[in-house]
Each structure stands twice: as structure tokens, then as C-alpha cells.
Amino acid sequence: MDRRLNKPLIIAAIILALVLGVVLGMASGLADSLFGPNPKTIATASLESMRAQNRLTVFAARYVSVVSSQQQRLGGLVSSERTLILPGDVRYELDLSKLQNGDVSWDGTAHTLSVKLPEIEIAGPDVDLNSVKEYGGGGVLSALTNANQQLDATNRARAVSDLRKQAQGAIPMQLARQSARAAVERSFAMPLVAAGFKDAKVVARFPTDGTDDPSYLDLSTPYNQAMEQAEQLRAQGK
Q1: Which residues, in sequence order, are CB contacts of 226 under 8 Å at separation 6+?
Q2: 10 Å Cβ neighbour count for 71?
Q3: Are 105 and 114 a contacting pair, CB within 8 Å?
Q4: How many CB atoms lie within 10 A of CB 132?
Q5: Nearest of 117, 120, 121 to residue 99 by alpha carbon
Q6: What is the distance of C-alpha 209 from the center of its chain?
Q7: What is the 3-state secondary structure (H, E, C) of 76-97?
Q8: 185 with 206: CB under 8 angstroms?
Q9: Where do the domains of the chain lie?
Q10: What is the chain's percent helix, strand, coil content, to nearest 5?
């Protein structure tokens, strides 16, 4: 008798739960249609996605250094001179893992998402030893001493330093920053547009934008390490 009474109650409870679920679903859909998606939520999701990428190469360039060194002995009576042509590749990167929630802000009035970027990091140079050219006069000093080896070592250290200096120039840094801004702005804008915020604007800026401070983080490879990496690449036939 009790079981027959409980069965209709259970069925009624299930029906009530289904009805409540439908009502809640309709209410949620109605809320979305009335208020739309939250741009802050979209921006937060985009931020997490970008941070997961870790490092982003925004620009790359190849530079060539030409340096010469001379060694003299006996008051200039004997001398030796060597010239080195050394090419190297440099990468300009953004460490996206440094982006924090406070670096992204939404201005509802202007429909603008502002993103504060970490500074550009320079990686390299990756020296291409397969394209290295070394030449110079021999003479008595070269024949009697290890002057050529000393001059070549000096030239290589100077050339790697020169490659770094070229990479840090105003024009390549400007190109790298422009590329970085465009990449980040595009990554944040696409989800907003897809969610219906077609008039949303994304503005990415570096901390030093609008100032005379050319600061950035230099992660250039030390001379010895650059040459070791180049030797390994040449041994691998790359």
C-alpha cells in the first residue's frame, strides 16, 4: 500500500525537476539574449589562452658583421691582419607567461580593451658558421707565431657583440614592437568579434610607449655559447 502511494510521488518529483530544469534553461537563455556575453569574461579567457602559449616570436632578422683585427710586433716591423664576415639570426620574443590579469582592462564606455605588454626579449644571435668567411694577409708574424688564431678569436668575439648591437637598433626594435602589438591585438579582438562585439577595439602597448626609454630585455647568447651552438648546427648539417 505504501509503495503504491510513493510511486506517484516519485514520478511527480521527477516531472517537477524536469520542469524546473527547462525553466532555468530558458531563464539562462533569456539572460544571454537580454544582456549578451560579458567582454571581461571573454578577455580573461583570451588571456589564459595566450599565457598558455608561453613564448611568442614576433619578429626575426638576419644580420651580418664584418670586423678586422691587426697585430703588430717589433714596433710595427712585422704585422698580421685578419678579417671576418659573420652572419647571425636573431629572434624578438614576447614572454606571454608574464601577462597578468591586471595587464588587461575593459573600458565599457569606449568599448576598448587595453593590454599592457611585457617588454620585447632578444634571443640569439644564432651564428651561421657555414657562411663564415675569414681571410687576411699572412706574413712573417703569422708564420712564426699563432697570430692568425688569436686574431680570428678576437674577430669572432667582436662580431658576435656587433650582431647584438645591430639587433638592438631602433629600426628593428620598432618593427618587432609593431609586430608584437598587431599579434596580441588580433588574438584578443577575434574572440570579441566572434561574440558579437564588432565595434570593440583592442589597444596593446608597451610600458615604454610614448617615452624616450628604449629599454628591453636582452637575452642574447654569450659569445662562447653562440659559437658552440653554431659548431653543433654545422656538425648536424644544418
Answers
A1: 88, 124, 125, 126, 127, 160
A2: 17
A3: yes
A4: 18
A5: 117
A6: 17
A7: HCEEEEEEEEEEEEEEEEEEHH
A8: no
A9: 1-36, 37-235
A10: 55, 25, 20
Render pLDDT for 110-160 as a digit per residue (tens, 0 to 9).
999 999 999 999 998 988 878 888 777 654 444 445 556 777 788 888 888
The angle formed by the CA atoms of residues 137, 164 and 53, to the nearest 5 degrees, is: 140
Sole residue written with cell 699572412: 138
d(CA 9, CA 222): 78
Q: CA 166: distance to chain centroid? A: 18
CA distance 38 to 134: 62
Top-confidence residue, 32 or 176: 176
Residues 6+ apart with CB under 8 A from 217: 119, 120, 121, 122
CA 85, CA 67: separation in Å to the nearest integer?
Answer: 7
Cβ–Cβ under 8 Å, residues 129 and 230: yes
Report the distance separating Cα 27 and Cα 30, nearest Å: 5
Strand pairing report for 112-116 and 201-205: parallel
Phi/psi at 237 (5° precision) = 80, 20
Q: How many CA atoms within 13 Å lie on the side-chain side of 1? A: 0
Q: What is the pTM of this model?
A: 0.69
- Check: CB of residue 92 under 8 Å from CB of residue 62: no
Mean pLDDT of the 166-191 span: 93
Sign of the alpha-carbon torsion through 156, 161, 162, 166 = positive
